[in-house]
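Annotated sample (chain length 124).
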Amino acid sequence: MTTADHLDPVDAYGAAWLATDAAERLSLLERAWAPDGVYCDPLAHVTGRQALSDHIAGTQEQLAGGRVEVTSRPVRHHDSALFHWRITDAAGTTVLTGLDVVQVDDEGRIRRLTGFFDDAPAPS
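Output written by the structure step:
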């Protein structure tokens, strides 16, 4: 049993955004994410664990030393939860904040995440 097996799905999802090792990130997503889970924010829409892992890796590359981190405990009811997050640059300065709303499947894994940016960039 890995450490990821003991994490709440939102905690495992947040840890996946911090994991720079692809195998570790995928292991965390296996705990957090339904196999066909959908990730949607103003700039991205991906389906499945591998696609989300690839999206996270691409974001990490663009941030060049910055981080995406969950900043609040999830507020939950029924099959839904919301939590806040922030993106910091390599110097630790916050560059973007927002919140995610998730729905979970019967096993408690995230089946859909819709992300909202507090100051969303204009869509391209």
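Annotation: Confidence is low (pLDDT under 50) at residues 1-5.
Annotation: The helical segments are 9-18, 22-32, 49-63.
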